[in-house]
Amino acid sequence: MVTAAKAASQVTLHMGVAFAVMYAVTGSLAFGGVAAVLEPVCNVILLPLHERVWQHMLAKRRSQAGVGQQSLPSAQHVPGIS
């Protein structure tokens, strides 16, 4: 139940901020209302994609770090680095 309440409050906050910003910029209740509806919908669609991209980047970085650390010489042995 707490998770549902938290999610509802987050959606309400996003909608309120989107409405307030659009209303302040345009002075239009209609544009404010459209923004209040579209902003949470865009978040629902884009946030999972964002998480997948970050997970992919972190996994790639971990795999490169594991392989790279073994094959790279230390800074003491690289010419031109003091």
Spatial separation of the terminal alpha carbons = 59 Å
In the predicted model, the low-confidence regions spanning at least 5 consecutive residues are 71-80
Broad structural category: mainly alpha
How do the helices and strands follow one another from N- to C-terminus? Answer: HH
Helix content: over 70%
Number of strands: 0
The fraction of residues assigned to DSSP E strands is under 5%
Number of helices: 2
Whole-number tally of structural domains = 1
Quick take:
The chain has 82 residues and is mainly alpha-helical.
Structure description:
With 82 residues, this protein is mainly α. The protein has one domain. It has two helices and no strands. It has helices spanning 2-26, 29-71. Helix 1 (2-26) packs across helix 2 (29-71). The longest helix has 43 residues, at 29-71. It is elongated and about 55 Å long.
Indicate the topology.
Blueprint: H1 2-26, H2 29-71
Descriptive keywords:
mainly alpha, 82 residues, 2 helices, disordered C terminus, 83% helix
